[in-house]
Amino acid sequence: MSTYGSLFRVTTYGESHCASVGAIIDGCPPGLQLTEQDIQVQLTRRRPGQSNLTTPRNEKDQVHIQSGIEHGVTLGTPIGLLVKNEDQRPHDYSETDLYPRPSHADYTYLQKYGIKASSGGGRSSARETIGRVAAGAIAERYLKQVYGVEIVAFVSSVGKIHLPFTTGPSSDDQDNDDIGDAVSPEFLKLISTITREEVDKQPTRCPHPETAERMTQATKDAQDSIGGTVTCVIRNVPGGLGEPVFDKFEAKLGHAMLSIPATKAFEIGSGFRGTEVPGSKHNDPFIARDGGKLGTGTNWSGGVQGGITNSEDIYFRIGFKSPATISQAQQTAQYDGTPGTLAARGRHDPCVVPRAVPIVEAMAAIVVMDQLLIQNARKTAASLLPPVTTLPPTMILPPGAK
Amino acid sequence: MSTYGSLFRVTTYGESHCASVGAIIDGCPPGLQLTEQDIQVQLTRRRPGQSNLTTPRNEKDQVHIQSGIEHGVTLGTPIGLLVKNEDQRPHDYSETDLYPRPSHADYTYLQKYGIKASSGGGRSSARETIGRVAAGAIAERYLKQVYGVEIVAFVSSVGKIHLPFTTGPSSDDQDNDDIGDAVSPEFLKLISTITREEVDKQPTRCPHPETAERMTQATKDAQDSIGGTVTCVIRNVPGGLGEPVFDKFEAKLGHAMLSIPATKAFEIGSGFRGTEVPGSKHNDPFIARDGGKLGTGTNWSGGVQGGITNSEDIYFRIGFKSPATISQAQQTAQYDGTPGTLAARGRHDPCVVPRAVPIVEAMAAIVVMDQLLIQNARKTAASLLPPVTTLPPTMILPPGAK
Amino acid sequence: MSTYGSLFRVTTYGESHCASVGAIIDGCPPGLQLTEQDIQVQLTRRRPGQSNLTTPRNEKDQVHIQSGIEHGVTLGTPIGLLVKNEDQRPHDYSETDLYPRPSHADYTYLQKYGIKASSGGGRSSARETIGRVAAGAIAERYLKQVYGVEIVAFVSSVGKIHLPFTTGPSSDDQDNDDIGDAVSPEFLKLISTITREEVDKQPTRCPHPETAERMTQATKDAQDSIGGTVTCVIRNVPGGLGEPVFDKFEAKLGHAMLSIPATKAFEIGSGFRGTEVPGSKHNDPFIARDGGKLGTGTNWSGGVQGGITNSEDIYFRIGFKSPATISQAQQTAQYDGTPGTLAARGRHDPCVVPRAVPIVEAMAAIVVMDQLLIQNARKTAASLLPPVTTLPPTMILPPGAK
Amino acid sequence: MSTYGSLFRVTTYGESHCASVGAIIDGCPPGLQLTEQDIQVQLTRRRPGQSNLTTPRNEKDQVHIQSGIEHGVTLGTPIGLLVKNEDQRPHDYSETDLYPRPSHADYTYLQKYGIKASSGGGRSSARETIGRVAAGAIAERYLKQVYGVEIVAFVSSVGKIHLPFTTGPSSDDQDNDDIGDAVSPEFLKLISTITREEVDKQPTRCPHPETAERMTQATKDAQDSIGGTVTCVIRNVPGGLGEPVFDKFEAKLGHAMLSIPATKAFEIGSGFRGTEVPGSKHNDPFIARDGGKLGTGTNWSGGVQGGITNSEDIYFRIGFKSPATISQAQQTAQYDGTPGTLAARGRHDPCVVPRAVPIVEAMAAIVVMDQLLIQNARKTAASLLPPVTTLPPTMILPPGAK
């Protein structure tokens, strides 16, 4: 369905060529100061044509808040918002409509609904993500203000061009006895310090100028398309989030990320590479932090252990396939099975990964917000009970730990 | 929470040392013939000590159906089931209890609940998966009987030892201009034919004898532990499953897989490797199959496009980290921050990936079953409407397509 | 939360003085022909000032469909819709704002959110029901087209003036040994034949001209207010709807009705009066209908038995309290406890029950639609299983029954 | 489905003749001291044969906790529990099986599932309520310990015999200009003081000895059956519970109550009678309570305004129809339509209302607990935001109010 979340709940609507796309955000805490501009910032970041970020403020995709806010403060009631579509005419018929576009959603939407929007995949349109980005901006504003949560995503690869030091040696180099580091110190430093400002300095949103330049060169072929990966870090998330057993934090996060169009892969912490590292190295030993709080000396876990956040940085990576729309001709078949050749018309973005960055951030914010509210409910309820004195001391959080 | 699914709904309970672990499965279609033995088969496959599969039938972990079935037929009402725990005494206190075990759930459970089971991570226990496996066996029985759905998981890597031909050249070989195949023909042949019988021939459940042998050697170090990956294929799933936009098929599948203990990564179809393949190659062209039905000539998509199944084989891979429990001493800290050394007592399984195989299959079955029921509701409702004759023909599933 | 339903899901937003009120309807079957006018009809019926129904078409509360429909046909994707608010300025401050209005939601909204809309009770505004009515109109259109479902609500009492023959003798007449009929033949005839056209002939929407006239007289006192009851019948609902055990049909229906503003009571079938009737009379014996289908000779059950519909007419009654806004002065207290006198300004509707009629119909349609989709999922799934031949014949629906 | 609640979630299983009935309670706050005996008390109160409450402790329906508790303290993880069925053999076939029992669930279960338990209505069995009562006992224990919540239900009518002063003059006495009190002072006094001990003094659980005696006489006819009403009060519930708009407190409460077998009616506060009382009288004026807290001088609202609790006593009434099982012969039809006569065998309880008392209390506790956790989540989240200083003072809860 088009709803995500249980206590912070986002419901979206809209196709490419209908009147508007929008969302209802239910469960935002009351008393949060919020303006349309707070939301607009991230919406503008997801607009096409971000390559020159010094252009005048983009007037498109303006968000209109419908409800839930008065005098710039949230009421706790549902926040309705919408962004008008510019092109509201249904798509004109052409011969290409005889073809389901390869690796698009045309055919599967027909299998699912028996009908599809004239423009193609309907809700698989990139415009659908506008509602997510808006909702995420609201969640993020709360999280930042109350917990200092920082969420920063960036492009970590385009095609075969990878940000260096994001991963260790190849998993395929099977004769190499040196297992290497799945998580390098440079990478950990990067995720602990990176900001959105730095990310946006590069049109490709890869925070490593040389790699960014190589990425720009690699995506100049307008006839073809290429995929990539986005890495995201969430800092300052309180420990204790994530619901055993089916709604572990990484399960909810993976769910949210894999609901973004064109995603095919998700990993948290050391991810696939970590599977090759023995426990003696992969385990994150505990250390005492300032103030007596326990932390972990390494962070192969990516901030989540047993499905529950442990206050360390949460980092994860998402794989986006190459866009399905390409200008060169493709051999394929029509709906009725007739073989033929299909070529997309018009201009197409050969690489969408940079635009995915604010969408990833938005979904991350929504997941954290929802889990936080659920955990707050439990924690508040438990805190009101009289202390239990009859248990073995190791069953209770000791005074020294927090 | 401990519930998964909307129309096929699984709720589980149980820790390591309580009276029993169990589940309530709600929403099983009525009229399905089902015995305890149908469930027991998969429960036995997840038992420890599977390495010698010729040993007499294991009498442990016997499932007891409580309700929802009469005369061997499901009533459509909730199926309650339980498996008794053998060791029901709370864990004895020892000095090791002063330490949160590194990369275990001891510490995060305390952060979450302020209390934890004496035995450690409570619901993060591997015994929690018994309820999943039982529920999955029920879902699978329905799916097999009605749709011929086949779900087979197998071990595709242990540490750095990978089943050959599962993936293409290294993503790190950045100077190699040849992008290669993320999806090799050998791999596609394997997933289209593999059976559970073949998988179980090897103690490691890797269906490639030479690789399996290398895996066995690699996991003989009882002092350390190692992770691995499981690959799973689901064959004969009808097209049209998966709910845009937040509950795309791969999002639900990823959620389910990442809720299995020790998982850190998930990819579907070409996954992370596919991000390096240009659209001109990665797109799956349509072809006419026997009977006029459309199929795709390649299957980089992994059976899902736009978040909706397209009737092709669904295949995906899950990364499991190395087990946190190791015998060798680890430098870490006590709950109160005191540094010290911790070593696990007793025997521990250095590699749990083979035992994860039936758990992966179970979660896959649960996801397909739930999505199928939701899509059935829509499809039945739509099929009862009078045909629409006023739409452009390309908006409606044409007679030639199915 | 502001969402109702599981497969047919309605989410609403909007207060009195924000930009618009609206809804997202998710799960509408694809292929349904639907126009704004289909929705507008019921929206217009809920407008204030319905007393002279011969006035020119009301131009207010025009619905604007945002998505989910192309060429007048539903796509199966979320239908976004909105109705603009005319008065979008926050309410001006006045001395009356020092008072929480008695039996309004001002005070409880503050207790809940710590903040409230300047206009008062925020989402408790009657305008919130616009989204429900619109969603209900969509559900109803489907139900009517496919199953011939007819939903008709009418005013059965205003204050002490009751439609005759709706109920039997007083429950308080405790010395009367004659228990009487809770369900009179006249009443059953009324609910089996009543139409919306007949209901709308009377400004009070009571389909009994004499009683309607008395009701009109009784509500002329503009200084005070009065409550009433609405009775609703749903005809031609298929048997088998309603989910044991917590989501029995009457439980879902009661939930939906008691979520309408100002409701305080709900009863189905013989209701409270039926509690006084012995089982020998209250039981509905089975009879064979035309075509061999079983029916019940009486219908004290109100079309629901064991929480599941049985194909008979479903009828129920809802009690609405008198509106809290009255012109006469009330002794009460300010937020800070200072005693004082409060009188509402402006014109107020002394009796809102007639306007509640389309809202009741809408919620009824939404409940039936959602339950129908859930039951369709089960029924379709069960129908695909091979027939079971090993059961005692009385455990299976026999060929003669349907 | 068989699950109730969102944060405090109860899932039940079990029919009459299966191995056991049970429940999983998920979301219980960690750190609550809880034993089987705490649960057993209410289970024993729902047992048949309560008429002589001085009999030795009933050894039947013993609850067995499976998980979620160690050393008598809840872990915050799911609490599994079960109660064994004594008669686990499927029902023997007899000629009466040819008949769907009138006003039972036999026929509707067949319509729904196409199959039914041999014993009849399957989950409509009274034994299904065991899981509810157990779950309610857990919720109640928390609520009592932390908030001092008191929940007391009692029988307010059996057939035509009503507890005096529960309601005002007849609504049917339409010529009587005196509208009377729907809520009498005697009634309000009763609900503010009644305890379970007082209720249990009477076998009929009507806390008015004379009326109780009349009820006992009235239910002596073992050949027939009779219904009745249960009234329940919940004291000390914090204000602010209930979720606008679809999950208003009374909507959730009504849902829960109408899910109890044999219920046909629900009303809160002044209920149906209140619809006859003008606003000038029905409105509950505010008064200052000790400590400056606002309260209401009257309580026609029944503790809920705008769908949100206001800290006053919550009281409501539920109507139970007469039991469908009666000994006298009934003219009815077989499944295949053949007319015939059916008479129940064995002993049957002619009036089940006294046994419904603990079930009503349990469902009330579950509803309050779930709403409380949801509201706690919001309240905690809002409390962490910096205070808003830019709003008109009447939009914010003033310091004087609480």
TrEMBL record, chains A, B, C, D:
GO annotations of cellular component type: cytosol
Gene3D superfamilies, alphabetized: Chorismate synthase AroC (3.60.150.10)
CDD domains attached to this UniProt entry: Chorismate_synthase
InterPro entries: Chorismate_synth, Chorismate_synth_AroC_sf, Chorismate_synthase_CS
E.C. number(s) listed in UniProt: 4.2.3.5
Assigned keywords, A-Z: Amino-acid biosynthesis, Aromatic amino acid biosynthesis, Lyase
Protein name as catalogued: Chorismate synthase
Biological source species: Leucocoprinus leucothites
